[in-house]
Design goal:
The protein is mainly beta and 195 residues long. The chain has one domain. It is 13% helix and 37% strand. The protein has a 6-stranded antiparallel β-sheet. Strands 2, 4, 5, 8, 9 and 13 form a 6-stranded antiparallel β-sheet that branches. Strands 10-11 form a two-stranded antiparallel ribbon. The radius of gyration is 15 Å and the shape is globular. The site of zinc ion has 7 residues, from loops.
Length: 195
C-alpha cells in the first residue's frame, strides 16, 4: 500500500497497473478532486466524461459505474463511494476562469496543476480531457440548468476504484476558493494505492 497526499490547491500524478485498486479520500470534507486518467500504453486514450455519461446513461457517477475512455473502453470501475455526488459535466478551472469571472491573476488552477504533474509524460493542456470532478455537487434543474452547489461530503468520504487498464492518473485538489463549490477552505485529498 502506498499513500500520496495531494495538498489542497495542488496536484499529483501516479500510475496504477491493470487490476490495481486505488482510493481517493476527501480528508477534511467539502473538497473537490478533479481527476484525469490516460492509458499508460497509449496516452492518446484518455478518460472521457462524454463517453462515460452515455455509456452509463446518466449525468452522475455512482457505485458500479465505469469511467470510459475516448475510445469507449472501460478504464476504471467505481467499486464503492460514500459521497453520493460526483460531477461529470463541468470543465476544469484555468487561468481564464479566475481572470474573466473574478478579475484575479496568478491564481492556481487545475489545468496548470495537471500540466505541472503530467509534463513528464509529455501531456500538456492541449491534450487534457475534461475532468471527472469527484466530490463536486452539481444538480440539473427541471429546465436543464446546471446548478453548482457547495460540496457537502463529510471528512473521510472516499471513492474506491479499480483500474481496468494500465493507467497514468492525476488528481488536483481544486484550488477554487472564489465560489461556494469547494468553499473558501481548500484542503487535501489522499490517494491510496493498493496492489
Ligand atoms: Zn479546479
Amino acid at each position: 500500500m502506498k499513500e500520496i497526499l495531494v495538498k489542497g490547491g495542488t496536484a499529483e500524478a501516479f500510475e496504477v497497473r491493470k487490476g490495481g485498486k486505488f482510493k481517493l479520500t476527501d480528508v477534511e470534507g467539502g473538497q473537490v478532486a478533479d481527476f484525469v486518467a490516460f492509458n499508460r500504453n497509449d496516452l492518446k486514450e484518455k478518460s472521457s466524461p462524454g463517453h462515460t455519461r452515455i455509456s452509463n446513461r446518466s449525468l452522475r457517477l455512482k457505485t458500479g459505474d465505469s469511467i470510459r475512455s475516448n475510445l469507449r473502453h472501460e478504464m476504471i470501475r467505481l467499486l464503492e463511494e460514500t459521497a453520493g455526488h460526483h460531477d461529470i459535466l463541468i470543465v476544469a478551472c484555468d487561468e481564464q476562469r479566475y481572470l474573466v469571472d473574478y478579475g484575479v491573476t496568478d491564481h492556481r488552477s487545475c489545468v496548470n496543476n495537471f500540466e505541472q504533474v503530467l509534463g513528464r509524460y509529455g501531456i500538456d493542456r492541449w491534450v487534457l480531457p475534461d475532468p471527472v470532478n469527484f466530490f463536486q455537487h452539481t444538480r440539473i434543474g427541471d429546465d436543464g440548468e446546471i446548478i453548482q452547489l457547495p460540496s457537502i461530503n463529510p471528512g473521510g468520504s472516499f471513492v474506491m476504484m479499480e483500474a481496468l487498464m494500465d493507467l497514468v492518473c492525476a488528481v488536483s485538489a481544486c484550488p477554487m476558493d472564489l465560489n461556494p463549490i469547494g468553499g473558501s477552505n481548500i484542503t487535501d485529498i489522499l490517494v491510496t494505492l493498493f496492489d
